[in-house]
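Before a colleague's protein record goes any further, I have to sign it off. Alongside the sequence sits a line of tokens, each denoting a local backbone shape. I want your independent view on whether this chain really folds as the tokens say. Where you disagree with what is written, explain briefly why. This is what I was given:
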Amino acid sequence: MSELIISALPILLKGLGVTLLLSVAAIIGSTLLGLLAAVLRTSRLPILKQIAVIYTELFRGTPVLITLMFIYFGVAYFGYEINLFAAGILGLSIYQAPISLRFSVPALRQCQKASGKCRGFSGCLNVRHF
């Protein structure tokens, strides 16, 4: 039994490295996408707010496996090829961004908004500084 584990250890370590790389890339991607959606959600233009709300509501309730399959097979359906690793990064980023958006935007309390307004910050600058 231990010989099996020792012989499989290089494969397991390679898988660990791929998993860590995928996780870090997806965290960075979801942070950037969530930040973009948060800025859109706090926009004064109603169409931009609606885009952020639709994105949030659509992907927040979707299981991660469905999102990953939608990205991989949806891109292939339109005649493009996508790498499995890139599809994983994109799918996990799209899946995680609305969740982080849902809990980050309401956390900006009213007093923080008022403080930013007193300093002359616009909505985007207020989100950035507070």
Summary: The chain has one domain: 13-129. The CA atoms of residues 116 and 126 lie 5 Å apart. The domain at 13-129 is CATH 1.10.3720.10 (MetI-like fold). The radius of gyration is 20 Å.
